[in-house]
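re: the backbone from monday

yeah here it is again, tokenized this time
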């Protein structure tokens, strides 16, 4: 594991901790999209089917358990906790997230490294994670006013994806046999994948990170000017 991979993992972990901190300390999920959290729960559930059958390292197993447990607990809090659920803005969180699932599944069935159940599910989780943030970004644009913890949560998620791209670039130049195109998190465009061929991994990895580009711009502007974070409608 290189420093960029470790930094990406820790940034991802911190994003989850920030969200859990908000939910546990102020008993609020205002500004958080339940649709995105449900998609992440599906992502981790389908990615870590081998958690008890394929032991890589204690670090790997612990991280899998953390992301599985945290994603389902967040969904539970937002749906069923008698206090937290009251702060959920259901009227604004209207992105039809289920329409993202079927295209990702079809793409995973068509484009994968090995046509087995676990491999297809793992590939499906990669495609779904690439677009899982969309309901959250749409919600932030609708509500516009974003509290600090919500802003930090989304920023850390975007930073995690950016660090993973640096990790892939580093591995490409330092590991002779690193040609794992699917782990570069491709986009959900089959046509694009067929057109770009072996270079599609780089382009598609950037596509996912670019989903955060608009948010990053306004996040740094608010930080630079010491103002409350707001996104344009």
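seq for it, each position gets an aa:
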């Amino acid at each position: 594991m290189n420093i960029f991979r470790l930094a990406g993992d820790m940034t991802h972990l911190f994003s989850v901790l920030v969200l859990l901190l908000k939910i546990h300390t102020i008993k609020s999920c205002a500004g958080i999209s339940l649709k995105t959290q449900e998609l992440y729960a599906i992502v981790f559930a389908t990615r870590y089917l081998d958690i008890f059958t394929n032991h890589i390292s204690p670090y790997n197993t612990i991280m899998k358990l953390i992301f599985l447990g945290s994603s389902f607990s967040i969904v539970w809090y937002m749906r069923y906790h008698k206090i937290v659920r009251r702060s959920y803005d259901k009227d604004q969180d209207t992105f039809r997230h289920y329409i993202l699932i079927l295209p990702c599944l079809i793409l995973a069935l068509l484009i994968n490294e090995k046509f087995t159940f676990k491999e297809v599910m793992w590939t499906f989780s990669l495609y779904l994670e690439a677009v899982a943030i969309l309901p959250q970004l749409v919600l932030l644009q609708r509500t516009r006013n974003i509290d600090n913890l919500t802003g930090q949560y989304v920023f850390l998620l975007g930073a995690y994806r950016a660090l993973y791209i640096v990790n892939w670039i580093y591995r490409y130049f330092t590991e002779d046999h690193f040609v794992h195109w699917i782990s570069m998190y491709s986009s959900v465009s089959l046509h694009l994948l067929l057109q770009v061929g072996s270079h599609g991994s780089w382009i598609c990895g950037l596509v996912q990170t670019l989903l955060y580009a608009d948010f990053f711009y306004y996040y740094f502007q608010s930080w630079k000017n010491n103002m409350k974070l707001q996104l344009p409608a």
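DSSP finds ten helices and no strands in the chain. Residues 183-201 have pLDDT under 50 and may be disordered.
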